[in-house]
Amino acid sequence: QFGSMATEIYENSGVDYSNVIISKDHSTGAAGILVNEGTGANAINVFPGAAGAITIEDIDKAEEAIKNSSIFLTQLEAPKDVVTYALKKANNLKVKTILNPAPAAEFDSSLFPLIDYFTPNETEASFYVDHDVVTYEDAEKAASQLLDKGIKNVVITLGEKGAYFANSEEKFSLPIANLSNPVVDTTGAGDAFNAGLAVALTEGQKIKDSLIFASATAGLSTTKIGTANSMPSREEIDRIL
User: Fold this and answer.
1) DSSP code for 24
2) What is the C-alpha separation between 83 and 96, in angstroms, rounded?
3) Is pLDDT at 44 greater than 90 in this prediction?
4) What is the gyration radius of the CA atoms in the chain, in angstroms?
5) Cα–chain-centroid distance for residue 27?
6) pLDDT above 90 (res 130)
7) Is the separation of the CB atoms in 230 and 188 below 8 Å?
8) SS3 call for 30
């Protein structure tokens, strides 16, 4: 049912899912999500299902789609060797890469220079550096260490504090979007942020404008319960901006 639900969402949203594989052996991944009613904060337990069975051969079959893309966005819920292979392929094809390290996991340091945009939240950022990331100052220190590893652009999301950006030329912090509705569920906000960032970069927006767009996308998603059905439309994002 989850597979059918997903393809229905793609159909209704006009998403090209020609490279989605319908597995005969594995069910669609699912997550058990606990949400704090007072704050909207969440804890998630993920069963990857078919996403955990994706292979290097599957990436090769999708090479044409990757080559014709402006951005290659991935995360760490798929097998690590496949994610590594895919990032290398995108890099070789001169496609900009975004790695959202969720859930945080160790990977070979040779991967860092292949990442154009690294987008951890504060917990994930803490995993990759030698200190906790809570404040903008912590984020600045962490970003500096991550840039030293060879990543080109670091974006650390800090929940209600907004986000912090750094590359070799500039660094700045960004508050969260100004929302008219209260936050009810933060589940999927990281996914929304990364999607918004990818869209804005694809459209050639400058980095600060891209992050403002990403922040608005994420902020709007927190004002609705759920994940897929809380993702905002382009009209909603443009309205808030």
Assistant:
1) S
2) 15
3) no
4) 17
5) 23
6) no
7) yes
8) strand
